[in-house]
Amino acid sequence: MSPRRIAVIGAGAWGTALAQSFAGAGHRVVLWARDPDRAAAMQDSRENAAYLPGIALHPGIAVTADLAAAEGLRVLAVPAQHLRPILEQLSPRPGPLVITAKGIETATGRLMHEVAAEARPEAAPALLSGPSFAAEVARGLPTALTLACADAEAGAALARSLGHKTLRLYWSEDLRGVALGGALKNVLAIAAGIVTGRGLGENARAALVTRGLAEMTRLGAGLGARPETLMGLSGLGDLLLTACSATSRNTSLGIALGQGRPLAQILAERRSVTEGVWTAAAAARLAAQAGVDAPVIAAVDAVLNRGAAIDTAVAGLLLRPAKREV
Fold first, then answer.
1. What are 7-37's pLDDT values in tens digits?
2. For residue range 202-217, what is the model confidence (pLDDT) as tens digits?
3. Smaller CB count within 10 Å for the chain: N or C?
4. What one-character-per-residue DSSP string does 197-256 give?
5. What is the predicted pLDDT for the residue at 57?
6. pLDDT tens for residues 115-173?
7. Model pLDDT, residue 286
8. What is the torsional sign of CA 134, 138, 144, 149?
9. Whose CA is closest to 102, among 173, 191, 177?
10. Is 323 a catalytic residue?
11. How far is CA 97 from the centre of its chain?
12. What is the three-class DSSP state of 277?
């Protein structure tokens, strides 16, 4: 692996963790933060106290608030709904553009690589996704992810370039599958959290996650994704991590909802974006447009956006007609 210059755009927990990982593998990394004061504080203190407290920034990371200074391979680690405006601020440059956001653009229903293709048509979008908690990646714990690129040869080269001994990257050409897996698992994790917060038991959570996976695969197939992609790291793998850990932002939000707390209050207390909140409505619309039955996603959308009571939504799922499992 030859060292390269990498620009990580977005200094939240995930962007900082990726910067740590790349710098630890010998790459030269520029980490862009939107707020100049925060960028200066991180550069001086060598810590992202807001998102990854207690983890010292690698010496190979330079922090800046100047987007023009973010030179090198561009890795976008900004929330899904902020991706398009950030892309539009970048200077035109052909070559790979790595997107790490897991969501669906609410205004358009576009997946993240589709947003990138529209906003930066000269670039070749790639998606980096899979089961990954930022703090573990930042500490150098073993992690495996999927890197998707339409050009298989370019994707393989990129995966080999960015991967290292604690960050194992598998490559794929299935951009739609990787995008949908990362987006939908967040919605399903909110549902799993609601089950936990409502005290419905481990049996119910296991059933919810399993049927959620079937729903993800069904919707993915209806939208042109490969089923095997959704059974891989960026689908099943990410769903297992996100839906089965209370430290997940989406699951913890679902737990709080299940305990009866208002959504607005939960969000007001959070610094990090909980992507599933914004993805639920867009995912429900995509399912309806594709004519795909997605009852769990529809139930989460109803609770988050349509004023449905949680007990009513749960009862609606339980009272669905009996059916063959496969």
1. 999 999 999 999 999 999 999 999 999 999 9
2. 999 999 999 999 999 9
3. C
4. HTT--HHHHHHHHHHHHHHHHHHHHHTT--HHHHTSIIIIIHHHHHHT-TTSHHHHHHHH
5. 97
6. 999 999 999 999 999 999 999 999 999 999 999 999 999 999 999 999 999 999 999 99
7. 96
8. positive
9. 177
10. no
11. 16
12. helix
Nearest of 233, 234, 186, 177 to residue 212 by alpha carbon: 186
- How far lies 161's CA from each of 147, 154, 165, 171, 211, in Å? 11, 10, 12, 12, 36
Tell me which of 102, 165, 185, 323 is the catalytic residue: 185
Regarding beta strands 123-129 and 143-149, do their DSSP bridges make them parallel or antiparallel, or are they unpaired? antiparallel
Please choose, from the candidates 69, 98, 95, the residue with its C-alpha nearest in 3D space to the C-alpha of residue 83. Answer: 98
Amino acid 317: pLDDT: 86
Query: How many residues does this entry show for the chain?
Result: 326
119-134 in b/e burial notation, b at 16+ Cβ within 10 A? Answer: bbeebbbbbbbbbbbb
Q: What is the 3-state secondary structure (H, E, C) of 212-227?
A: HHHHHHHHHHHCCCCH
What sections of the chain are H helices per DSSP? Answer: 13-24, 36-45, 83-89, 112-119, 134-138, 152-162, 175-197, 202-222, 227-230, 238-243, 249-258, 263-268, 275-290, 295-305, 310-318
Write out the two tokens for 75. 């890795």
What's the mean pLDDT in 175-180?
A: 98
Average pLDDT value for residue range 290-302: 96
What are the backbone dihedrals phi and psi of residue 107, each rounded to the nearest 5 degrees, phi first? -70, -30
Cα 293 from Cα 199, distance rounded (Å): 26
Amino acid letter at 181? G
Which amino acid makes up residue 93?
R
Cβ atoms 39, 33 nearer than 8 A: yes
Tokens of residue 137, six digits: 């990646």
C-alpha–C-alpha distance, residues 84 and 119, integer Å: 6
- Tell me the one-letter amino acid at 97: L
Sort residue 258 into left (φ over 0), alpha (ψ -120 to 50) or beta.
alpha
